[in-house]
Amino acid sequence: MEKITRRSFVNKFGVGVGASVIITTLPSFLSATEENKIPYTRKKLNIALCGLGNYASMLAEGIQASEYCQLAGIVTGTPAKAEKWKTQYNIPEKNIYNYQNFDEIVKNKDIDLVYVVVPNGLHKEFTIRSAKAGKHVITEKPMAITVKDCEEMIKACEDNNVQLAIGYRLHYEPTHLEIKRLGQEKVFGQVRFIEASLGYKIHDPLDTKSTFNKNDRNEWRLNKKLSGGGPLMDLGVYCIQASRYVLGEEPIAVTAQLGKVYNEQIFSETEESISWQMEFPSGAVSNCTTSVNFNTDRFYASADEGSFELSPALSYGPFQGKSTNGPLKFPVINQQQTQMDEIAKILLENKKLPNHITGEEGLKDIKVINAIYKAAETGKKIIVQ
Ligand code: NAD
Question: Which CATH number is correct for 174-332+355-383, 3.30.360.10, 3.30.390.50, 3.30.470.30, 3.30.300.10?
């Protein structure tokens, strides 16, 4: 994917006289020029990916395309994958670990950070093991499956003097930075109402070739111990996140309803669909849905003097949208590359990661998710705590 520099951004999107695209502010990371780029003299941030599944492959491509990171190591339980990745990404044998000998990474000065991309229920174990090995950690969303797990992960990182980030890829995406700005700066006044949804229709679960098949032992998303829940954990977290960062507020109470289960055989442990409503201190309400039974990818915010919306909104993009002032059109970026570069720039300078991507942020999402499940089970309004 084309890397966005200030020049290519201007050329491609014709910002300036006669530009038809509405661009209000350019995110700071897109405004670096060759002249004002931070002159890193030291090595790149060396990353080890832990868990080599689907999303790790996307991250590997992002790291390859990045300016400030290098894919230096891998952690996998499958020897065949180790061989394949070793050749594909030129990874030295000494930087390849399995889940048993992983703790030896403590002795490996070549690795600065471990990126945990295993099933949600294993984020805690690998985050804590990485922290104890003195490595910074990025762990995928959702941060973990319980509040206690999140708290233990935060403590382990603090105790071992390493930093913990959550892989929130949309926190660097220009369209999302813009909706965050529109909401938090009250460009159209106070946002009163949000609608957000993310879902996809899974393959026919009875199809033995399906990638979402309960008989497939790799389908950890259907196993509550490994996933923590269904699409709320996997996709709903994006609706919660977007509502929180557009409003700049934390939900105080939630109500929720589980959707119809069309396939009880498959969805015996985790939900198939769920809708929920979040109340915020300003009085704003966010109405959200997530499902693995239908496709949806939308965000809409209604404010006192206007509105803004995206569709597609929360997936890998490219995103499209509009506000009362016109189209919302921003450069298409490689989300994983940008996330990695932005985190690396901070860690390479030994600075503190910003609050909006740390473990405390991940913990807030899990508190909301807990409250949503409780509201769905009890049929009551639940206070988020
Ligand atoms: P996946 O099934 O494709 O990969 C999971 C990996 O974990 C596999 O390599 C598997 O071998 C390994 N693994 C280790 N122990 C395992 C166990 N006990 N059971 C099953 N697998 C085990 O899943 P994925 O889609 O890559 O998701 C991994 C993580 O990344 C999840 O936390 C998920 O929420 C997150 N994710 C994030 C995004 C994003 O956009 N940020 C997108 C997809 C997935």
Answer: 3.30.360.10
Measured from the Cα of 57, ligand 1's closest atom is: 26
From 140, 149, 234, 239, the mutation candidate for ligand 1 (largest count of ligand atoms within 8 A of CB) is 140
Residue 234 CB neighbour total at 10 angstroms: 21
Please list, in sequence order, all residues whose beta carbon lies within 8 angstroms of the beta carbon of residue 256, skipping any fewer than 6 positions away. Answer: 274, 275, 276, 277, 372, 373, 375, 376
Domain boundaries, the chain: 40-169, 174-332+355-383
Q: Which residues line ligand 1 (CB under 6 A)?
A: 51-56, 77, 117-120, 122, 140-141, 167, 169, 218, 220, 226, 234
pLDDT digits (tens, 9 = 90+) for 141-192: 999 999 999 999 999 999 999 999 999 999 999 999 999 999 999 999 999 9
Q: How far are the Cα atoms of 86, 232, 242 from residue 139, in angstroms, in the given order?
A: 22, 18, 19
Q: Determine the Cα–Cα distance for residues 101 and 231; give it in Å rounded to an integer.
A: 32
Q: What is the distance of C-alpha 107 from the center of its chain? A: 30
Instruction: Report the DSSP beta bridge partners of residue 136.
Output: 113
Ligand 1 pocket, mutate which of 99, 118, 168, 338 (most atoms under 8 A from CB): 118
Which sequence positions are flagged as catalytic? 141, 238
Atom of ligand 1 nearest to the CA of 167: 41
> How many Å lie between the centroid of ligand 1 and the Cα of residue 15?
39
- In order, the DSSP letters of 168-216 are -GGGG-HHHHHHHHHHHTTBTB-EEEEEEEEE-PPP-TT-TT-SS-TTS
Q: Class for domain 40-169, per CATH? A: alpha beta
pLDDT: which is higher, 222 or 36: 222
Tell the burial category of 28 from Cβ atoms under 10 Å away from its Cβ (0-12, 13-18, 19+): exposed
Q: What is the band of 242 on the pLDDT scale with cuts at 50, 70, 90?
A: very high
pTM: 0.89
